[in-house]
Amino acid sequence: MARLLVVEDNEDLAGLLVQGLTRADFVTDRVATMADARDVLSRNQYSIVILDLGLPDGDALTLLRSLRTHDDPTPILILTARGTVRDRVEGLRAGADDYLVKPFAFEELLARLQALLRRPGEFLGKPLSVGNVTFDTAARQAFVDGAPQVLSAREISVLEILIRRAGRVVQKGAVEDQLYGLAGDVRSNAVEVCVHRLRKHLADVGATANIHTIRGVGYLIREIEP
Amino acid sequence: MSSHFRSILARIIWLQIVAFAVAAAAVVLAIYLLLNSTSVRFENQSLHVHAANIAKYLKQQPDGSLTFDLPSELRSYYANGLGGLTYAITDNDGHLLFSSTSGDVRIVKNPHTGRPTYFQSANRRRSYLASSLPVQVGSQQVWVQVTRNIRRPGLVTDDVIVHYLRHVGWFAIPIILFVLITDFFVIRRVLRPVVLASHKARTIDPQRLDVRLPTQDLPREVMPLVEMINQGLSRVEEGFRVQRDFTADAAHELRTPLSVLRMRIDGLEDREAAKHLRADVDAMSHVVNQLLEVAELDGVMLDPSETADLHRVCLDVVELLAPLALSQGKDIALTGSEEKVRVRGHTGMLIQAVRNLVENAVKYSPKGSTIEVRAEPRGIVRVLDEGRGISELEREKIFRRFWRRDRIQTSGAGLGLAIVARVVELHGGSVNVENRPTGGAAFSLDLSNALIV
Ligand SMILES: Nc1ncnc2c1ncn2[C@@H]1O[C@H](COP(=O)(O)OP(=O)(O)O)[C@@H](O)[C@H]1O
Ligand SMILES: [Mg+2]
After folding, report:
1. What is the pLDDT of residues B113-158, one digit of tens each?
2. Does residue A226 have a cis bond before it (omega within 30 degrees)?
3. Chain A residues contacting B, CB < 8 Å?
4. Does the predicted TM-score (pTM) go above 0.80?
5. How far is the CA of B287 from the centre of ligand 2 (A)?
6. Angle ∠(A94,A100,A105) on CA atoms, nearest 5
7. CATH of region A127-223
8. Which CATH number do you get for residue B404?
9. Which of 3.40.50.2300, 3.30.930.10, 1.10.10.10, 1.10.287.40 is the CATH number of A3-124?
């Protein structure tokens, strides 16, 4: 089970964050200052640190930098009110793994945490789902409305990469890379053909998720609105 | 002169050459005058000697009359004008008593000084140098005047000057050259701290306002200038810092409570109410973000060394906003160049601009329509929609802050297009809007000025 550290000085926000994260099955600790953060980080191992930047005892970027100079690999998600592009670049350069600006949608935060946890070396999360389509990442098996689906290896790969980023665009290049990873030749329209087949399959079996083509950019899977 | 020579070094060298030329002319003139006055003095002395010698042959007879008994060789000497000398003797009233020539005697009315008088005179044909000496002969006072006819005055002195220039003057040229070359190196060395300071000044830009010009080793004359520049820089830096701090503080104070509010709403039991409240908070957050963006863009300047790829910018925006468009039943597509379109500019700000255009396109076009975003190789980004378009009358108003066509029906603060205009302004480009022949608005960001080819 993933253990998170929330470093946030605003009491209300910290309380709500801990509450929400606990409900999402994370074990969550919380501190309000850099000093406390240093202290708990030296004693415990965390899966992710959610870091506010403006803390009472200074700019948390200094904490981030010192962690990175000591080769601490703990993934760090900055959650801050500093929203300028310059701030974002500075945060990522200091060694943050992700950067989310307040105010944020809690689902967005969860999605980003999931993405950080799914990085190589991290354990795989729960089965992913969009509408009535679910995908078991461990077994690499797709279900529609609970019924297992027979799909080609390519279709499985494409579905997996799309469903991992459900609701967001996956660039065509990323899908191509996924297919190149498999044996066999990839013709220039291989991705299109594959997506087309997958889309048709989902429609045929009454899936409530649809794959959209964003011309010039890539693909996106999302739930069909009722 | 200052318009010809922009370099201090060139100015100094040039002024020195002028100074040398003036000095050389002055030296030649001074030598000429000196030689001239010396030769005149010698001349006068010799005339005086002649006059005194002539006076010795004047005698007063017992009856009071004067005789003048010049030996014959002297008489012929003065008569044939060897050496151009003539004499004349007058009484106190200026009546001519004796003279060396028969005609054409020039008598100068003697001033009664009791001392010899020298004078020069010249007419069209001749120049004279004369000495008039008062002499007491017995009881009588007479004047002996010796005159030299100088047909070519200054002949000797002219020769000397020419000689000087020809043989001594050349000497001066290598000396002057040597001085000038030495000057060149000396001045360059003296100016080095100034040159260093100006190199440093070149590195100042809005991203590097902490730069200060070095004052070490600077000549006292330029020190005040450099110090004032440094003070000015400090004030500018301070101004930027205040602006940034304000924006950062405002951001913190507004965004944190909005986050709390949003999380509280997420936790509500009543899902239907929560949905509406969430939409409200999101709209409010959007306005807050836009206000902060406007404030931020007011205090910002571009780093001229940064580059951005317009194709990439459009790609990022479409990727970001595709879910929004789809959720409203609208299609979105990236067309145009598939290659890089590189411009001098700030990726983040350009994303901000294109994003606002695409948000509008999504917001102000009907369900089932398609929004098209394209980066063109000429450095133009177009955002095309199938909505109602923008009427002629509205075209300049829409870019004003807080202007909205419909204040009641749509959410938003009317800041989106003002942000677009500001970003484009910072990039030295322009933003235009037209209506498409098929209906709908066609916004274009013209950044061709910033295009890197
Ligand atoms: N693509 C468009 N089609 C039609 N009207 C538009 C479009 N873009 C902007 N407008 C009009 O211009 C106004 C100002 O736009 P903007 O500055 O983005 O503010 P906001 O979108 O917050 O109202 C909008 O309120 C709208 O009336
Ligand atoms: Mg707008």
Report:
1. 555 566 666 555 556 677 788 888 888 888 888 887 765 444 455 6
2. no
3. 10, 12-13, 16-17, 19-20, 54, 81-86, 88-89, 101-106, 167-169, 171, 212, 214-218, 220, 222, 225
4. no
5. 10
6. 170
7. 1.10.10.10
8. 3.30.565.10
9. 3.40.50.2300
